[in-house]
Structure prediction request, 372 residues.
Amino acid sequence: MRFVDEFRDAATIRRTCEEIRRLADPARHYRLMEVCGGHTHAIYRFGLRDLLPPNIELIHGPGCPVCVLPMGRIDDGLALADRPDVIFTAFGDMMRVPGAHGTPLEHKARGKDVRIVYSPTDALALAQRHPDRHVLFFAIGFETTAPSTALVLQRARAEGVGNFSVFSNHVTIIPAIRAILDSPDMRIDAFIGPGHVSTVIGCRPYEWIARDEGKPVVISGFEPLDMLQSVVMLLHQLREGRAEVENQYKRVVPWDGNRAALTALAEVFELRPFFEWRGLGFISQSALAVRATYGAWDAERRFEVPGVRVTDPRAAQCGEVLKGVLKPHQCRLFGKECTPERPVGALMVSSEGSCAAYHSYEYRKTVAATPA
Prediction:
């Protein structure tokens, strides 16, 4: 298939759903985790959950980098934004994520110089236009966005841009999956692997999940037929007693990953010994820090960072939702105190957050169907 319409063809979708119903053992309950937040939004946006048999349960994993960032790291970054000489820059989906002392947008309303950028290149260009100010880029994302940060740091060093730095909050997907599998209250039969991350890291890093844990993995695209075909592939493996890594997203994901991106990551970043994840706690070797060779552009070396640790609001159940223990609507605050207009947790803010996805599609559909 070459065009997006072909991945949304109704007749092909119906045939694929019939195959899923044929493959699914009615006496068995299947728990499939989609790791990527983009997949979660696709599931709700296209109504895929309604097309699956009731014994196939889709579990939402921690595949949203904004959502897994603990409040303390947000507060650390905003502490640097309070400096009068600093221009704080970040992606738009960070702007309404609350820390203990407010969101970046609220800091902007208090007179701090907080700006939205669409890439780290924009932040670097801002530094070049304002040589009398220091521009800090609040970097966030899995391996999908980390290469762009690495390339900008390479460029900053090559061009000698001294008034620019990165506050790195880049995280890596494999340790998060390992933490989920180690969780005593989590049972997963198979994984729908993340498409975006895999364009960079490829398929090999997931092989231990199949080999050591006996869980099938299928790397999936984001269109309806991508997702449904991935379910078909997983059901074939489970039916045949196999556990392998398969690549449904071959048109985009190379098996060995993007060599140029991986080279840039290896040059600029190193693994942190430990990093805190919202809902998952501290996970070793799970985040990227700027190497000492690029220390002049590392905000954590240039400035005194408070190192704040903040507990999530007690009533919020972001951690349980992130781990897949609860569905978004099962959180006590969902749709009440916590809404997209007034979010309590990051899962309701981010464009990839499972609570935002559920509220945008499933929750509103339920409300619309309720008699007045």
Q: What stands out?
A: The chain has 16 helices and 13 strands. The chain has a mean pLDDT of 91.
